[in-house]
Structures are given as structure tokens and as C-alpha cells.
Write a structure and sequence with these properties.
Largest sheet: 4 strands, mixed
Order of helices and strands: EEEEEEEEEEE
Number of domains: 2
Oligomer: single chain
CATH class of the largest domain: Mainly Beta
CATH architecture of the largest domain: Sandwich
Distance between the termini: 52 Å
Length: about 140
């Protein structure tokens, strides 16, 4: 260790590093669902050391537990926690035949970005434009 006045000292302590080998599976990363089939249920399973002790939490309505029932298209994820470590698995649910409206925007921080497909004219969006987030006139 080094101190502000320039002095230093040695310090030694044994530590144990445990391998975190937990993996989450049990559902597809992307699933296409017909509108009439919503809600759809998914169940996460864990593998690895102490897999039976993994605690799951879904991003959908902050649902706790291995299973979740999703009633709309979107991007979701589940986190499996064990002894302070976390494993993550994504899930993209697409509604068959639905038109997805997306905006391709890069954010640079300090309220700046570039909008590559402004939604004010979806048929002919025009060239990319600089945008100043936080400007009420933009």
C-alpha cells in the first residue's frame, strides 16, 4: 500500500476465488408469437454448481421466480443470482405480422446524439440529423 506522504507498507492476505459457472437456459433467445397466443409463458433453468439455489428475476414487471407470463411483444431478460454473482439471459418476443416501429439513434452524452431515421416522416426519413436532447424546440 502507498500513502499520501510517500510511505508504503506491504500487506498480504490469502483469498479464495470461486468459479461462477452458472448458465441460464430453458427458452429461446427470440420467439415469434401470434397475437391470439398471448400471454406466453417462459421458464428459466440454471445449470452449473449449486444451480438449484439460483434466484431468478425477470425484467417483465420485475417478476420473481423461474417462470414468467408475458402478454406483449418486447425485449426482456432474466437474471439468475447466486452468492452475489449474476448470470443473464435475453428474450426477444415478436408478435407475428406486427409492424415494429424503431428509431435508430446514437446517444453521445451531454444531451447530444444523431437521429438516423427521424420518425416525423417514416416514408422518407431523409438524412441523419444532429439532435440536442433536452432542447424543448427539437
Amino acid at each position: 500500500m502507498a500513502y499520501a506522504n510517500g510511505d508504503s507498507t506491504d500487506y498480504q492476505e490469502d483469498i479464495t476465488i470461486n468459479d461462477f459457472d452458472t448458465q441460464i437456459s430453458g427458452f429461446p433467445q427470440s420467439d415469434t408469437v401470434c397475437a391470439e397466443d398471448f400471454p406466453v409463458s417462459y421458464t428459466a433453468t440454471a445449470s452449473g454448481t449449486d444451480a438449484g439455489s439460483v434466484v431468478f428475476r425477470w425484467s417483465y414487471n420485475d417478476t420473481d421466480g423461474a417462470s414468467v407470463s408475458i402478454d406483449s411483444a418486447g425485449n426482456y431478460y432474466v437474471v439468475g443470482s447466486l452468492n452475489g454473482c449474476e448470470a443473464y439471459a435475453p428474450l426477444r418476443v415478436v408478435e407475428y405480422g406486427a409492424i415494429e416501429q424503431r428509431a435508430f439513434i446514437w446517444y453521445f452524452g451531454d444531451h447530444a446524439g444523431i437521429d438516423f431515421n427521424p420518425l416525423n416522416d417514416p416514408v422518407s426519413p431523409g438524412p441523419p440529423r444532429a439532435i440536442n436532447y433536452g432542447d424543448p424546440n427539437d
